[in-house]
Amino acid sequence: MVIIPRMDSSLTSFFNPRGVVVIGASTSPEKLGYGVARNLVQSGYAGAIHFVSQKQGQLFERPLYTDLAQVPDPVDLAILIVPPQATPETIKACGTRGIHAAIIVSSGFREAGAEGAALERECVEIGHAQGVRLLGPNCIGTLDTHLPLDTTFLQPPMPTRGGIGFISHSGAFCAAIIDWARRQGFGFSQLVSLGNQADVNETDMLPMLAADVHTRVIVLYMESVSDGRKFVDAARAVTRVKPVVALKVGRFESGQKAAASHTGALAASDIAFDAAFEKAGILRADSAEQMFDWARALETCPLPRGKRIGILTNAGGPGVIAADSLETNGLLLAKLNESTLKALSANLPPAASVQNPVDMLASASPEQYATCLKLLLEDKDVNGVMVILPPPPMFKAENAATALIPLIQDSGKPVVIALLGSTLIEQAAQTFQLANVQTYPFPERAASALSALVKRAEFLESKQTLKVLETFRVSEPKDKSIEELLAAYGIQTAQIKLARDENEAVSIAEELGFPFVMKIASPDILHKSDVGGVLLDIKDSQQARSGYTQMVSRVKSVMPGARIDGVHLQRQIPNGQEVIVGMVRDPQFGPLMMFGSGGVEVEGLKDVAFALAPLNQFEVREMMRKTWAGRKLKGFRNIPAVDQDSVVDVLIKLARLAVENESIEEIEINPLRVLEAGAVAIDVRIKYGV
Amino acid sequence: MVIIPRMDSSLTSFFNPRGVVVIGASTSPEKLGYGVARNLVQSGYAGAIHFVSQKQGQLFERPLYTDLAQVPDPVDLAILIVPPQATPETIKACGTRGIHAAIIVSSGFREAGAEGAALERECVEIGHAQGVRLLGPNCIGTLDTHLPLDTTFLQPPMPTRGGIGFISHSGAFCAAIIDWARRQGFGFSQLVSLGNQADVNETDMLPMLAADVHTRVIVLYMESVSDGRKFVDAARAVTRVKPVVALKVGRFESGQKAAASHTGALAASDIAFDAAFEKAGILRADSAEQMFDWARALETCPLPRGKRIGILTNAGGPGVIAADSLETNGLLLAKLNESTLKALSANLPPAASVQNPVDMLASASPEQYATCLKLLLEDKDVNGVMVILPPPPMFKAENAATALIPLIQDSGKPVVIALLGSTLIEQAAQTFQLANVQTYPFPERAASALSALVKRAEFLESKQTLKVLETFRVSEPKDKSIEELLAAYGIQTAQIKLARDENEAVSIAEELGFPFVMKIASPDILHKSDVGGVLLDIKDSQQARSGYTQMVSRVKSVMPGARIDGVHLQRQIPNGQEVIVGMVRDPQFGPLMMFGSGGVEVEGLKDVAFALAPLNQFEVREMMRKTWAGRKLKGFRNIPAVDQDSVVDVLIKLARLAVENESIEEIEINPLRVLEAGAVAIDVRIKYGV
Description:
Low-confidence stretches of chain A: 464-475
CATH superfamily of the largest domain in chain A: Succinyl-CoA synthetase domains
Largest sheet of chain A: 7 strands, mixed
Mean pLDDT of chain A: 90
Strand content of chain A: 15-25%
CATH topology of the largest domain in chain A: Rossmann fold
Oligomer: homodimer
CATH class of the largest domain in chain A: Alpha Beta
Structural class of chain A: alpha/beta
């Protein structure tokens, strides 16, 4: 079942207004108010376009009104280029006029200091009171290449039409990317510049772009998040429907806060973003270039059914580079079927290499390119293909392009082109572009694009449902002991209990389970074993009773003056593997769960993985796969296998505990001892919020 | 002292011939023999150019000779485009004619099967006998843009003149890169296509390019290495003089061979390349794009004196991206001086951010760009600058370029430009290019280029000398015990020695040192401590003597039937940290040393670092810095610090042992226990070659 992301209907006027008014339009070409008017008119927007200015006159064959009230119906969207001080009253006028969406282009608000911040708050309050949603301030507006509608002041021409919807926290980055994209040969469906996000933010806009029919993939340039949890929830719904690629910057900005646990110390804020993106199914790119390399492939390529890739080349060197980069990107070189190898051989000279990477040699003709690609795509063990096309020495690259395109368009498998060179492949690049076939200047980038497709496919296949657990909500965790709290969620602890007489020893023993350990409880005795104050391996109630009596009398006879409170009983925990399991509450995304190699060296080894709560089985198994501590659970050399499922269980339960008990800020089980059957928390620390 | 790399004088004819002859020149434009002739003539080569062909006639206004003997003097270089079968005799004819350098363009040799391989061997033998050095076969020749000389058949025009010398194992990659470089705006000094490397290989060519006055940086596309050790030695000499950037592909090709030790299992062949490049001072790039991004910066930028970088931008978003990418690339955001901050404030509007990244706001004029760059460069805590130039909304980007260029050219600090966009910054891109200022399309790539400069600077500063050690060459290691072998190199072992009477016990004890442990030596006794057969903490000779007598008589009385060989003595090793130290002999590069976290989990944790033997202190400390095992030696939380120097010592000595004893294939000390003072090999394994 696909859940349709919730779209906020109060935002539709930003996207499909019946009429638009520019407030602050200008006849001076160097002013932003001129640029916005020009773009609106030139964009080809079919609705009404009106201008409001301080001076009467004409602009682009339209009257300049001096009062918003004079503007005729219908108007749904206002673009404000007025001084910051005049902005609140202008928003009010919009509300009065029945306009429910306003783009505030002007800067001079929160980013300019305390006075601006106060003005910004005033704008939001008035907008709220008047029912006017605000985009910005300090933004460059929106752009829809299909409607079309251009509310920006950017230098024309508009970007090419395409299927990429772009939401950006930075206006300058938008502008630069639009210009860059022109030469890269890809276009956009929508563009939303968020500016200061006084009102509308990335979480609001994601579902809007998800609902846009022309948007096939959403890219997101983020510098922060407004509400981490809401963002994750909204994005989870969106990524079920459309791929989202994000570039989150400011990775290294936030210093790590002092933490009470290893988990807290290791969970730097950017790790929470990693976990949030993973939870939301967002593909996180490492660079702007990578973000668009991925988005282009996701826009036009079918998704692969696996990660085994065929490489088709006319030269050995680039083929080796491609093979390397498949592995670097977590893909596999497909092993070709016998019949494919035979057919390739029949179509290629004897010196050609038919094993993947298929090297057709420099003499490869456009027809050979096409025949071999067809054979590769027909091989059931090939999930996708990278075609390498350096300037062919004997033919024109564009002829190869023409021969390849119909096959690529008809294929249910993704094909990307590593198109090497520049002047000699220019025509081929344009031919591919017109056919919506993605080209990359190097095999490494083509492989990275294929890996994004594989990740997207794997994500869509991984819809694991959360295993339903009974809920044990602890009303006031602070009032409970740590053991009680964990027990309420079904997590076993190595609890220590005090028995004050032999009857109590028996009943505690039966509660703890056998075997157990008994230690004399006395503030006066340091070395308990020296006075016969330790008894191991107590196997039944009978031994518990006699053990109590004998221990107390023995200790009394050896140390007659010592105070004896009774006897401490602790379940005797068998040997097993030890791991760390923890949670730190991220201020933006809530409980961030950690799993990995524990002990005192946890912060040095950094063999840990993170994920956002709540957790399902699939997510926990991912954490285990990412860490040596997790992989080792199934046994390694002379280290015996232990109960992996019990670790999954503990993590799911601990995540549930964290979600349901918001006063807990950090919790850490270090170590959790994982046994042949079951897992026991040996040492637990909890930090409560103030 | 700079060591001048050894140049092979027999290769100079490839680079500066007095005359060139094309053997196999053709009048048919589709033939390679035509392309080579055309390029030679059109390149502007000033020496004599002659053509030999099967048919008489004319080509490019020169006669076609049918016999090499007819060609007039002087001729130093021959380019052979003849069928493989005819190649050996043609090489012979070259030798007879007094030509000592031949480029074999034709393919159909080793790469084509057994017959071709035999022909290739024949070529090499004849070349050797006749004193003719061979480049290729199966290569595209050489190119010198400055001389000029073009021996390739590539489509004109020649690449732009520049300072990058390019050595490539792949001809197709060369051709594609040359075409790509045209649009990227950088040029080459030299190009050498190595082909099958039947004779001349990358190790031969490196010093030749190092000696070329126009080559400022060498890039190396490698698929393999001919002789690992020779390559490292040659490259070490070259990198002292000129930077070398390499792209080594085939990372994942070679399956790991079965190994006798953890070290062997972990040391996949590509790790040896990493270690070799590090030893040689070669910068290893991850992709072709990165290789040239780095090379461009190394060609033209002064080297920084540190890694603190200033960022100058007119927009916040790209500034944040830049700051992130500095950190990702191991650089630091410079902290600006008070006086710089003040001066920046005086030149910028109040809303601008003068803290690094310096955000001048969208209104920044070319003059403000220049003034602020000047201020940043004058700040003594700024080692280099990244200028971010998106299409400025108010000005033309090229005006900013013009204002910045003189400052950049005059500066002793590196400045790179993140020039965002495409159509709107085209003119600016050309202006920067003409001025040899490097631009990158995104801040991430600009940061990566700066990091290459920093790495190069750090490498040049790190000329550490090898600590001189006494040499103990063991004549026949197989005949020695492991303990004797390690002892010969000054590495302490926890050796076990058998004493057969109390006198021997005393002398062994005195040799081993106190305290020590005594255990009964009997094949019949499994649980030695049960029969009083273990004695700990023996502190002096007196205790050794009495211990021996008492232990033997006690065991005899308890187990009268047991055979008793005497008593095993072992030094009692105090607690400490345990690490792994190992060596595996790489077939290409020789002894590859490993250091890291030991124990049984070493292969799972992979907390290990590698370096090529011999080792110096600096290299060992790098290995320690790269691993948690190494960083932990100085103490962590409740883990006490241990003797780091002793580990350095053991690694240097073990590397020496490995170099001097070639019959040892693998050696592993796991664990090496590092004490408060000293380090002791607890368990040692050695595998000898067959």
